[in-house]
Amino acid sequence: xxxxxxxxxxxxxxxxxxxxxxxxxxxxxxxxxxxxxxxxxxxxxxxxxxxxxxxxxxxxxxxxxxxxxxxxxxxxxxxxxxxxxxxxxxxxxxxxxxxxxxxxxxxxxxxxxxxxxxxxxxxxxxxxxxxxxxxxxxxxxxxxxxxxxxxxxxxxxxxxxxxxxxxxxxxxxxxxxxxxxxxxxxxxxxxxxxxxxxxxxxxxxxxxxxxxxxxxxxxxxxxxxxxxxxxxxxxxxxxxxxxxxxxxxxxxxxxxxxxxxxxxxxxxxxxxxxxxxxxxxxxxxxxxxxxxxxxxxxxxxxxxxxxxxxxxxxxxxxxxxxx
Amino acid sequence: xxxxxxxxxxxxxxxxxxxxxxxxxxxxxxxxxxxxxxxxxxxxxxxxxxxxxxxxxxxxxxxxxxxxxxxxxxxxxxxxxxxxxxxxxxxxxxxxxxxxxxxxxxxxxxxxxxxxxxxxxxxxxxxxxxxxxxxxxxxxxxxxxxxxxxxxxxxxxxxxxxxxxxxxxxxxxxxxxxxxxxxxxxxxxxxxxxxxxxxxxxxxxxxxxxxxxxxxxxxxxxxxxxxxxxxxxxxxxxxxxxxxxxxxxxxxxxxxxxxxxxxxxxxxxxxxxxxxxxxxxxxxxxxxxxxxxxxxxxxxxxxxx
Lengths: 323, 305
Hints:
The complex is a heterodimer. Chain A has eleven helices and 14 strands. By secondary structure, chain A is of the alpha/beta class. Chain A folds into two domains: 3-181, 3-Layer(aba) Sandwich (Rossmann fold), CATH 3.40.50; 195-322, Rossmann fold, CATH 3.40.50. Chain A has a seven-stranded mixed sheet with strand order 3-2-4-5-7-6-12, with helices on both faces. A five-stranded mixed sheet of chain A has the order 9-11-10-13-14, with helices on both faces. In chain A, helix 1 (6-20) runs parallel beside helix 6 and helix 8 crosses helix 9. The longest helix of chain A has 18 residues, at 86-103. Chain B has one domain (2-281): Rossmann fold. Chain B has helices at residues 2-16, 31-38, 54-60, 64-71, 106-119, 137-148, 178-183, 196-211, 240-248, 251-261, 267-290, and strands at 46-48, 95-97, 125-130, 153-159, 162-163, 166-167, 188-192, 217-222. The radius of gyration of chain B is 19 Å and the shape is globular.
């Protein structure tokens, strides 16, 4: 099967989306952060110059603009770029876009996509490394998507644009170079469908975004010790596929949740709570979370590495639940 | 204007009688801006409001029964009781949304204007906001982008002298908010907002420019709300003499006098218009009060589409 780098699959999706629907406009950013592959963005601009907008650095202004344009029938995709910058447009995202459908009694649809890069990126420090998806999950009215592979980024981006809801597309710069199989003419991936990224029988590791890649490496490593790790990727937080998760939990009875949001009230915390409510009796050992420590993200490489869901912490957590 | 006045007086009465419970902001005294502006718009033009927007929605053509029911929190309201007084949406009339956040809809109106420009049908977007919004971030970011991209949006500032409970002078040294538009190279004017014909003249020019693809405009209307910031606000921060002065400038009385001076309307016709407005509003109020409350289970039915 055809293999593509993540960024290639993502831009293949953007080309197909732009070609299929004239209502789609790209607003701000390059969808690449600081990746050197700028040429793929330039190709898109060359082809769709009139529908690719570069606003001033006014997140409040352009997040609102995209929301209002969606209310009026367009389907904009906004690149917030660095996830921390969504805080500059926050009121328009969480207080206007997210509330509009419910607050209007279903009169107003807001088909806007807010794309951002979250997480530890290497020297971003506290103001360029946020993972805002946990805060956003706490705000009803948004759909939240986190791809972790080339195939997923393409299929999920298409579904995000087709959705009539404001959708947060949570990306990670560390994924851009990841290679993987992407079938030609692949179907869009529906929201609310978790994906078992690796089959296993001893322990269920639930993880999202770039952490899925890290967990797959851990699973491979532990297979040498005859520890069989099942890696489950929810792919979307809203809607959330509890059934696939619980099938895996019922099978292994042991759970580790690995996620890059902060530990307290983070994505891992919410998933842990849901598993405890839905299947506490299925657990053979207390579940464990591996999340980012509850500190502002530090700058220095050893400090940044220390606070994240490191490989050694993931392995330790797996060993603990297996004991 | 009479319909808006009668509607809001009824809302006030229902609130006093505890038949409406909720946070209410009335625009009694500011009707000329809503009526004058919206009388120049098409149904497919986009209008955005703020927390004091009953009048804007009515002027744009919202159904007053569904509007009253919404303010009363009933299932038959425009938003099925989920939005209420501050978050009116009447998509059928092109009233896209109001907001409870000062300045919150200004960037949204940019987006509708952006869509209008793409649609190429000569639609415009109009956003109403108060003087309090002029000191907020979305106001400035939006004026800049509207100017830069020549969007067909008209910023309508209802400068009623008070941002919530404090006079504008406590918030900014800029006395006329139209000055900000000059900074961003947007054509602007400051106009007597209690004179219906002047409102129409100023807006006609702004709408004409926007429809012709000549970009945004900013109109600051000087007006006054004759009630407090919210229903129940005793408004002790306001001098009685100031209130009396503005009551003398009541936009409805002024326009009626003007029509009579020109012999364009008789006393009898004036009474007939008032009676009709009151009658329509009474029926809307009855509809609202007779309507069922929404059921609790309905709350999770419309979180996402």
